[in-house]
């Protein structure tokens, strides 16, 4: 039976798709409104990790593109209301936007650099400073949390000085035990022990007592190969599973990772409220009924009415007493020497 003093950390990556981008209205604005309504009704606070590169790219075209200017204005207005409602705005960096082109009214993501380690030092410094300033201007509270695009947090040592200078001391990019075998956007957390939080210095993969940074990990979920066979069938049939709000399409994974998922017995994924994975929330609870801290993430573009219903049922069954943003959780766990 679930404990009755469980805590839920709730976070979402506020962004477009990166293959066929989809519309701002369907991928962020409409589902963002739905999240505001849902969290208000259930008394929840959460973190919106905002892809500031998207908004910066809108701004660069706003002077000669009325539609993008309107999109940028609407996103800013929504983010201000999100912050005013008490939710946290966190920094989310997808640097490929720096290379993305607008061609005939559509975003062209070809020949873009997905990972920060493909950028020079001056470019990295500009990305963090400009993205941070953009979000801080929209947030009522200090921006203190970061999530790497695609969980590509390493090499952390290259970005640590920029985050520290900006006062961003909380990371939430790690799914303990997860691994993605992809040349363009891979990561490997397979050797990281499962914990809800820890301190670190040069890398979130190496905990360090009293470290300068805090990791607030996403709860891992072990998923069987039949789940991925179902996702593959959906993809080959021309769509994605379920009735997600967003109208775009994600970039396909490389062949090595696809084969690993289809052939393996299981793999570790993130605990998610997205449409395709939300039905697994109940399985996660059954597998770890005594867990007291859960971190469920998602994406407005991948949410659906069904997925929010699953999340509400999970909160009830898990005995969740309080739902926190990433920063609230990190603060609540800080002792004399900080979270361990």
Structure commentary:
The protein is an alpha/beta fold and 340 residues long. The protein has helices spanning 24-42, 52-61, 66-84, 121-136, 160-166, 225-236, 255-263, 281-287, 305-317, 326-333, and strands at 6-14, 47-51, 88-93, 101-103, 106-108, 145-148, 170-171, 179-180, 187-188, 197-200, 213-216, 220-224, 266-270, 293-298, 320-324. Strands 1, 2, 3, 6, 7, 10, 11, 14 and 15 form a nine-stranded mixed β-sheet that branches. Strands 4-5 form a two-stranded antiparallel sheet. Strands 8-9 form a two-stranded antiparallel ribbon. α5 links the parallel β6 (145-148) and β7 (170-171). The longest helix has 19 residues, at 24-42. It starts with 5 loop residues before the first strand and ends in a 7-residue tail after the last helix. Residues 336-340 have low confidence and may be disordered.
Number of helical segments? 10
Fraction in beta strands: 15-25%
Radius of gyration: 19 Å
The helix content, as a percent range, equals: 25-40%
Broad shape: globular
Terminal CA distance reads 27 Å
Ranges where pLDDT stays below 50 over 5 or more residues in a row are 336-340
Q: Which H/E pattern describes the elements?
A: EHEHHEEEHEHEEEEEEHHEHEHEH
Instruction: Report the count of strand segments.
Output: 15
Q: Give the helix/strand class.
A: alpha/beta
Describe the largest sheet. 9 strands, mixed
Q: What's the pLDDT, averaged over the residues?
A: 90
């Amino acid at each position: 039976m679930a404990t009755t003093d469980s805590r839920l950390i709730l976070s979402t990556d506020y962004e477009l798709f990166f293959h066929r981008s989809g519309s701002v209205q369907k991928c962020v604005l409409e589902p963002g409104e739905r999240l505001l309504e849902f969290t208000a009704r259930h008394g929840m606070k959460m973190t919106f990790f905002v892809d500031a590169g998207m908004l910066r790219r809108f701004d660069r075209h706003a002077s000669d593109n009325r539609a993008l200017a309107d999109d940028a204005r609407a996103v800013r207005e929504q983010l201000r209301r999100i912050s005013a409602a008490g939710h946290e705005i966190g920094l989310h960096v997808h640097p490929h936007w720096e290379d993305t082109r607008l061609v005939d009214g559509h975003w062209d993501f070809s020949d873009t650099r997905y990972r920060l380690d493909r950028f020079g030092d001056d470019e990295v410094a500009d990305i963090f400073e400009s993205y941070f300033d953009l979000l801080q201007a929209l947030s009522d509270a200090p921006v203190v949390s970061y999530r790497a695009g695609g969980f590509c947090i390493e090499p952390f040592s290259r970005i640590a000085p920029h985050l520290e200078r900006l006062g961003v001391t909380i990371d939430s990019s790690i799914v303990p035990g997860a691994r993605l075998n992809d040349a363009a956007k891979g990561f490997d957390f397979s050797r990281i022990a499962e914990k809800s939080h820890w301190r670190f210095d040069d890398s979130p993969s190496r905990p360090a007592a009293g470290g300068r940074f805090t990791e607030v990990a996403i709860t891992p979920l072990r998923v069987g190969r039949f789940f991925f066979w179902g996702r593959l069938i959906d993809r080959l049939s021309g769509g994605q599973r379920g009735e997600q709000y967003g109208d775009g399409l994600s970039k396909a994974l490389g062949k090595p990772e696809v084969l690993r998922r289809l052939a393996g017995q299981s793999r570790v994924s993130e605990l998610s409220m997205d449409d395709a994975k939300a039905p697994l929330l109940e399985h996660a609870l059954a597998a770890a009924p005594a867990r007291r801290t859960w971190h469920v993430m998602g994406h407005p573009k991948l949410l659906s009415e069904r997925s929010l219903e699953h999340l509400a049922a999970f909160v009830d069954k898990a005995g969740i007493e309080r739902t926190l943003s990433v920063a609230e959780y990190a603060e609540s766990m800080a002792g004399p020497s900080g979270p361990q």
